[in-house]
Amino acid sequence: MARLAGKIALIIGGGADGPANTGEKLSIGNGRATAIMCAREGAAVMVADRSLELAQQTANAIREEGGRAEAVAADVSIEDQCRGAVEATIKAFGALHLLVNNVGIGIGGSLLKTTTEQFDTMLAVNLRSHFLTMRYAVPEIAKAGGGAIVNVSSLAALRSNRMISYEATKAALLGLGRSAAVSHARDNIRVNTILPGLINSSMVRRLIGDREARVAPGIPMHRQGTPWEIAKAIVFLLSDDASYITGTELIVDGGLAAR
Ligand SMILES: NC(=O)c1ccc[n+]([C@@H]2O[C@H](COP(=O)([O-])OP(=O)(O)OC[C@H]3O[C@@H](n4cnc5c(N)ncnc54)[C@H](O)[C@@H]3O)[C@@H](O)[C@H]2O)c1
Fold this sequence. Notes:
The protein is an alpha/beta fold. The protein has helices spanning 30-40, 52-64, 79-93, 116-143, 164-184, 202-207, 212-215, 227-238, and strands spanning 8-12, 44-49, 69-73, 98-101, 147-152, 189-196, 249-252. It has one domain: Rossmann fold (3-Layer(aba) Sandwich).
C-alpha cells in the first residue's frame, strides 16, 4: 500500500537548478527527488519553485510516471508568494496535508567575509520563508484533519565549515521546527527536520562541480549521499510510519556527524 495514498503534498524548492549527473536523464536534487518519491507513494503533488520551468519539469516527470502533479512559481523570499504556493495547492487539489520546505541557499562565508546584505538575504530565503510557508500551510493542514511538515536543514546546523549565515539559518530551523511541532501537535500536525550531510545534488554540481573524489574519503560510508536517500527519509517522516515522531531531527549523512 502506498504510504502517502490520498494525501496532498506541497514541495517547496521542488525544481533542480543544475546539471544532470552522469547517466541521469533529468537533473536531480533533494527537492525534485522528494516530489517524485511523494508521488510514487501515492500523494498528489504541488511543486513550487522560484523557477516555474524547473517546477514544471518535475511535475511533468511525475505525470509521465502516472502520478498527479501541478507546478507553481514561488520565490519564498516574498511573503505573498509563500501564501500563493499554499493557495495554488488548495485551488488545484482541494486540500493540503503535507509540506516540505526544501529551499536553502549558501552565500557569504565566514563572519568577516559576509556582508549585512548577504546575511539578510540568507535569513529571508533559508529561515523566514519556512516560517511563512508553515504559517500559511498549518491552518489548511489542520482543516484537512492533520498531516506533517518536514523542513530541510543541514549537518551545518551542528558543525561549522565557516559559512556563518548558512550555519546560523540551518541551526535556527531546528528551533523553528520544534516550536511549530509543540504548538500544533493538538492539530494532529507533526513537524520534523532533516539534516542531510554531503549530497550529490543538482545545486551542488552547479555551485561546486563534482566533489565526490575530494569528500568521499572523509565520510565513514566513503561516498556522498544521493537525493533519493534524502527523499526516502523525508517520505518516512511524512508518512504514518513516523506517527509518533514530532519536534525532532533526523541526520542523514553516511556517518559523517558520528566521526
Ligand atoms: N546538497 C547537499 O549536499 C546538501 C547538504 C545539506 C543540506 N542541503 C539542503 O538541502 C536542500 C536542497 O538542496 P539541494 O542541493 O538538493 O538543492 P535542490 O537541487 O533541491 O535545489 C533547490 C531548489 O530550490 C530552488 N530555490 C532556490 N531559491 C529559491 C527561492 N527563493 N524560492 C523558491 N525556490 C528556490 C531552486 O530553483 C532549486 O530548484 C537545501 O535546503 C540545502 O541547504 C543540501
